Amino acid sequence: MTVAELAHFPAPLAAVPDPDPVVRLRAFSRAFGDTRVLDALDLSIAPGEFVALLGRSGSGKTTLLRTLAGLDAPNGQEVLLPSSRATVFQDSRLLPWKRVWQNVAIGLRGPDRRAAAEAALAEVDLAHRLDAWPLTLSGGEGSTSWTSLHGRRRFFQRNCR
Amino acid sequence: MRQRAGNSSLTDLTRSRWLSPVLFLLAWELACDIGWISPHILAAPSTVLGTFKDMLVSGELASNLIVSLRHAILGCAIGSGLGVILALCAGLARSGDAIIDPIIQVKRSIPVVALTPLFIIWFGIGETTKIVLIAFAALLPVYINLHSGIRSVETRLVDAARSFGLGRLDLIVHVILPGALPSLLTGLRYALSISVLMLVIAKQINASEGLGFLINNARDAMRTDIILVCLFVYASLGLGADALMRAAERRLFVWRPSLVEI
Q: Does A95 map to a domain?
């Protein structure tokens, strides 16, 4: 990695029960046409470790994060990702044709979907907007319910798109 | 100035959108009644209304309308159905796109009306030709609109849904299809109006029943009143189809902010 920089913040020792990395890229490269965005990147992230990714616009931050989020296919390269992961996009990306609770429950299965969504929305004080349509939410309500989507998940990841 | 109050009804009248059509009808009626316009050229509105009532009472209008409607609805349903299936195949899979899209583009460059002679040779002059013509014409707007609708679903929403682990089928059902639905409705709206248009053209081929039959007979007998009644019915069909689609849109798109009551 030449332009973007990775800053590792090691987890406190107590929080590292397993030294094996949960995320591992080996000599990962990605190019769009003639532009080589990522060139032979090696990256390991241990459980509980915080990693900050810094870099100028166009230095490949989003490209890396899209790979880490599993949105781009690894194309035969060595990419190890945890099966349980979450991506928080910068903007609210609620589906406008689903009510707020259905948005929060997206990807969940089973009869407890609504209850899980209710709990997640109650946590962010949006229980009264369960049945609202996303486009009628205020900007703040929208991003809050969008964030509460991730209240269900354990891992957070920020995409600087 | 106090004359405002006194003139307000006059102002309302001159601004009313009903005024010019009503005046037009009155002038038309008057011109026919004093003999300026021969009934062979154009029947008077009152005659048209009387003929309309007579045809309604005798059941002549209803029976022929049902035949025409059946052709239009059947043709439109077959055409739109095929359009939806083809657009789904082409929109959701790259290989489907490569196979289907070029053929549709070729078909698009041929005016459907120009295919009439071929269809008559293949299917005869019976109702099959009419239904096939309507279906063929209705297919295109549905395909084109749905295809572009599927292709223009926002990638940011697709990415977000995928990040929650939605599989391909879930993605199609919950994200791509609802996102493309407005385009589908637009396509269906075009398909309906094209169906009515093709109905008129197809009915000129050889009609033994239906609205086209009524018009052809009326032409031979120089009955302009019957022709006008049929034109009126065609117009109502078009308006009815459009109202139907707008009602469907209101029901389907309750989530749109302009339609949501806050």
A: no
In a domain, A123, yes or no: yes
Q: Do B156 and A87 touch (CB under 8 A)?
A: no
Q: In this complex, do B161 and A106 lie within 8 Å of one another by their Cβ atoms?
A: yes
How far is A106 from chain B, CA to nearest CA, in Å?
Answer: 7
Q: Are the Cβ atoms of B163 and A70 closer than 8 angstroms?
A: yes
Kindly tell me if the per-residue pLDDT of B187 is higher than 90. yes
Q: Which domain holds residue A52?
A: 5-80
Report the number of distinct structural domains present in chain A. Answer: 2
Reported ipTM: 0.72
Question: Shortest CB distance from A87 goes to which of B163, B254, B257?
Answer: B163
What is the least distance, in Å, from the CA of A96 to any CA of chain B? 7
Check if CATH label 2.30.30.40 holds for domain B60-248.
Answer: no
pTM greater than the 0.80 cutoff: no
Whether A12 is covered by a domain: the verdict is yes
The predicted pLDDT at position B148 comes to 94
Contact between residue B85 and residue B79 where contact means Cβ atoms under 8 Å apart = no
Contact A97 B179 (CB under 8 A): yes
Q: Closest by alpha carbon to A86, among A160, A161, A159, A157?
A: A157
Same-domain check for residues A68 and A118: no
Chain A residue with Cα closest to B169: A107
What gap in Å lies between CA A118 and CA B11, rounded to an integer? 57
Instruction: Report the C-alpha gap between B145 and B181 in whole angstroms.
Output: 10
In a domain? residue A139: yes
Which among A86, A91, A96 is the nearest to B255, CB-wise? A96
Please judge whether A133 and B165 are an interchain contact, meaning their C-beta atoms are less than 8 angstroms apart: no
Helix (H, G, I), strand (E, B) or coil at B232: helix
pLDDT digits (tens, 9 = 90+) for A65-97: 888 888 888 888 888 888 777 777 777 788 889
Please, what is the angle between helix B45-58 and helix B19-33, to 10°?
A: 90
Q: B151: which 2 tokens?
A: 């292709």
Q: Could you tell me if A17 and A68 lie in one domain?
A: yes
Between chains, do B156 and A93 touch, taking CB under 8 Å as contact? yes
